[in-house]
Write a structure and sequence with these properties.
heterodimer, A: 112 residues, mainly beta, seven-stranded mixed beta sheet, 11 strands, B: mainly beta, six-stranded mixed beta sheet, 0% helix, globular
């Protein structure tokens, strides 16, 4: 029972490179989310998808794009990575909005 | 600016002691969730409180939701080293999003 799977687990990029973080859930959840977690700042929402076919900006969307590929998969793309995007990125899913969210184990991204 | 303010930011106690973590906001939430996160892992849901004034117990953990649904607390009785982790509160408003607090790092020393 995998739940929410994120790939890769670790990545180092150079400034200006592009990268796509992958997320897949096997719980048949409708809603999916991308967060970043930085020390002392908790989890900040980047983008979310309330249901298949829809995406919306969260609190910190600048520099990111997302694709809800199907009900299971929600990817996050950094088009031109910047050092300020060094963070731990978490994907989450829930059955419906406001319901408890299930998180993956994160992608640790360093941008030099 | 965090919509939810958690205090304290860090807490270090001896095994067997009690501790309380607070989560406060000026906003009203339809429900409030508490998560625990261990190093290298994602947050895991502990409990959801929905009704103002609600108290929920989960073994040695007691969760309260304020009467006005703006604040919550987590109390741990006789803490154990296994309780060590980052505790996060998250409020659900009128849309599909949760607002997370910055978290409280709890360390229980053996």
């Amino acid at each position: 029972n995998a739940g929410v799977t994120q790939t890769p687990k670790f990545q180092v990029l150079k400034t200006g490179q592009s990268m796509t973080l992958q997320c897949a859930q096997d719980m048949n959840h409708n809603s999916m989310y991308w967060y970043r977690q930085d020390p002392g700042m908790g989890l900040r929402l980047i983008y979310y998808s309330a249901s298949e076919g829809t995406t919306d900006k969260g609190e910190v969307p600048n520099g990111y794009n997302v694709s809800r590929l199907n009900k299971r998969e929600f990817s996050l793309r950094l088009e031109s990575a910047a050092p300020s995007q060094t963070s731990v990125y978490f994907c989450a899913s829930s059955d419906r909005g406001r319901q408890p969210q299930h998180f993956g184990d994160g992608t640790r991204l360093s941008i030099l | 600016t965090q919509l939810l303010e958690q205090s304290p930011q860090f807490l270090s106690i001896q095994e067997g002691e009690n501790l309380t973590v607070y989560c406060n906001s000026s906003s009203v939430f339809s429900s409030l969730q508490w998560y625990r996160q261990e190093p290298g892992e994602g947050p895991v849901l502990l409990v959801t409180v929905v009704t103002g004034g609600e108290v929920k117990k989960l073994k040695r953990l007691t969760f309260q939701f304020g009467d006005a649904r703006k604040d919550s607390s987590l109390h741990i009785t006789a803490a154990q080293p296994g309780d060590t982790g980052l505790y996060l509160c998250a409020g659900a408003g009128g849309d599909y999003k949760l607002s997370f607090g910055a978290g409280t790092t709890v360390t229980v020393r053996a």
